[in-house]
Amino acid sequence: MDYTKTHLTQAFINLDNLTHNMILLQKLVGNRPLWPAIKANAYGHDAEIIGRHLTRLGYAPLCVAHIDEAVELIEKGLDTRFIVLSPTLPENSRYFVQYGLEPVVCTLDQVSTLAEVASKPVTVHLKVDTGMGRVGIQPDQVVRFLEECARFPQITVRSMMSHFPRADESDKSFSRHQIERFSQVVEKTKAQIPIYHFANSAAIFDLPQAHFDAARPGISIYGLKPSLTMTNPEVNDLRPVLSWKTRITFLKEAPEGIGLSYGHAYHTERPSLIASIPLGYGDGMSRLLSNRLEMLVQGVRCRQVGRICMDQCLLDVTDLRGKVVIGDEVVIIGKQGDEEVTADELAETLGTINYEIVTNIAKRVPRITVGGTSLMNASWDRAT
Q1: In the prediction, which pLDDT does 383 show?
Q2: What whole-number distance in Å separates Cα of residue 343 and Cα of residue 69?
Q3: Which of 103, 148, 235, 276 could form a disulfide with 230 if both were Cys (CB 3.0 to 4.6 A apart)?
Q4: Annotation: CATH topology of 242-341
Q5: Is the peptide bond before 233 cis (omega within 30 degrees of 0)?
Q6: By the 8 A CB rule, do 133 and 174 touch?
Q7: Torsion over CA of 185, 32, 76 and 279, rounded to 10 degrees?
Q8: Residues involved in catalysis
Q9: 15-228: what fold?
Q10: Distance between CA 107 and CA 204 in Å, rounded?
């Protein structure tokens, strides 16, 4: 059975748009390497599909959040380096060695535990907290920390990094303060550290002084804006990589005043033609969007009505009566005719960010690749 055909709700991954976005990001950072983030199943886009294409484009290392994300890709045959961004527990240190992963570290316990289990050299990346307030050592502790790391010959500190909490805001004052703090540490440690990296997607566009020696793009890889308040107009050149579609599986006439779906949270306001589609919160469509979103059928915006169920929901297609048929395509995110529904639109309606919309698309939704024949042509080594 071909699961990609029987499961009618599908996400389409446009690899040519992915290539376009990488070209744009590369232009912004010049000849600095990009270390793309493919954590959380590549922000819902499918880490294997995205990871393989980025590797074909010459990008390495790739950034993941957890050990298992890297190991799954390695066991699927993806041959590249991985930086693991999030801390783990000491008992998991052996997996970094076993699979050749590069952890981000910020405590001496992490370093010493890695050294204890290391049967071969281990490359690590030092995280400095310049204002994110999450993980990382304080800037005034870095010099001493590196001195302690030097006691472990098995450990090589390949880079130093930090992270922005507010680079996507229009007011960049706090972010510039962070860059200043990080730059002070750079001056004190540049004889010991070969690579410094700080910029996320927002900083790649709006804070060129944060580019340093490498950059770690995330959401922008996938053609989505870090926020709607970015100041660099080139952010508008990003092309969404993902479109999300399904099909109409049932049509029925409903009289005026009838309740639809669980709880009868919606009653028809006129004699209505109602379409059922196989899309629900089990596929990653938030139940909180019930009665609050529109989808595209034959290039027309159609209102979703009634509570979103686990596996199905309803569309009011009354305005297409006589035209719409079972099997018609329904666009959840993407373009159809002259209309478009974006992840940003859904995020604004839900009161969240586009990251959450795409990352929440369930794994049971098949990811189907589109394009991918065009590859970048650059003369420098992105794996530096």
Answers
A1: 43
A2: 24
A3: 235
A4: Lyase, Ornithine Decarboxylase; Chain A, domain 1 (2.40.37)
A5: no
A6: no
A7: 90
A8: 39, 262
A9: TIM Barrel (3.20.20)
A10: 28
What distances in angstroms separate CA 60 from CA 48, 120, 382, one per listed residue? 14, 21, 7
Q: Indicate the domain borders of the chain.
A: 15-228, 242-341
> How confident is the model over 44-75, as pLDDT tens digits?
999 999 999 999 999 999 999 999 999 999 99
Q: How many CB atoms lie within 10 A of CB 186?
A: 18
Whole-model pTM: value is 0.95
In angstroms, rounded to a whole number, what is the distance separating the alpha carbons of residues 250 and 277? 7
Q: Which residue has the tokens 């790739």?
A: 62
**pLDDT of amino acid 378:** 44
- pLDDT for 374 equals 64
How far apart CA 170 and CA 232 sit, in angstroms, is 10
Tokens 């999450």 identify what position? 134
